[in-house]
Amino acid sequence: MKRIRLIGALVLGLTTVLALAVPGIVSAQGRNIVTCASGSTGGGFYLLGSGLATILQKNIPNVVANNQATTGAAENVRLVGDGMATVGLAGGDHMYFGYRGGREFDKPRKDIRLLIGTYTPTQHIVVHADLKVNSIADLKGKRIGTTPGFNASECAPAILEAYGIKKNEVKIVPMAGAQVLEAYQDRKVDAFILGFGAPHPLITQALKITKSKFLNIDPAKIKALLEKYPYWIETVVEKGDYQGLDQDYHAIMDPVAWVVNAKVPDELVYQMVKTIIERNSDYQKIYREAKEFNKQNALKLKHLVPLHPGAEKYYKEMGLLK
Fold it and tell me: Which residue positions in the chain have pLDDT lower than 70?
């Protein structure tokens, strides 16, 4: 009896080691365990993770998927790269530095691979219509509402700097997105820079109440920004998406993609990508921004990290790769 228990313990221990060494391999019951590293509970990343776990478990046989709350993209890259999560949501900058090392990453995570991109929240740069502001360069000396973290510390200052505006020449006011728009409507800030999916209902509502105008980023400035920040991409909001937007609006954003550990079996990754694209309507029922994970956007970030072979197989079958 002791020998049987010992063998059982050894088998269970070996299975656990395999599951940790190769995320998504097997559980003791012969099922694939998929852990989706997402974001803080209730946030957009968390909802995308919850939706992914739901559709994977529902549509792929023998998969048990769970959504893991995290502090966000940087932690997700570490978890996936270190084999502690199967997939994770990551911004383009976190993919770039995570794979190569540097910035907040103490070492390169060479085991991260692209699964599918890309959710592209656009940087909305909007100002009160009655102010004498016709270009981003005119924001000098103005109060600008934006969200804390990436927007306040990196993206907004980078855009302003491209127009010759230094940090001490504007007042950046970091707040939660909804609070930024409330402050804007109350004229406590002159403008806002918000990275939201477009059209976003909160911005739509704010523009109905407050007469405003969008400030495009000039093509030459976009080119310069993308050369300096190769992990950002250009985004376009089509005319008519917002009240008063009578021409296409050009801006930039740090895009978001799902990354996967390199050791996850090819067939499982193939089924994951297939499910995300072909069951996307189910994904959107949980969080509407999941619509961005589609064939058109899938490969936009393949220049940042290598593509997983399982994902590559699916994209070739769909004619997206040769």
Answer: 1-28
For 22-119+256-317, CATH number out of 3.40.50.80, 3.30.460.80, 3.10.180.10, 3.40.190.10 equals: 3.40.190.10
Q: Which of 251, 239, 256, 235 minimizes the C-alpha distance to 162?
A: 251
- Residue 260's H or E segment, with its range, is strand 256-261
Q: Is the peptide bond before 309 cis (omega within 30 degrees of 0)?
A: no
% residues pLDDT > 70 (the chain) = 91
Please give the model's pTM, rounded to 2 decimal places. Answer: 0.78
User: What pLDDT, in 10s, does the model give residues 166-175?
Assistant: 999 999 999 9
Task: Provide CATH 3.40.190.10 ranges for the chain.
Answer: 22-119+256-317, 122-253
How buried is 93 (Cβ within 10 angstroms: 0-12 exposed, 13-18 middle, 19+ buried)?
Answer: buried
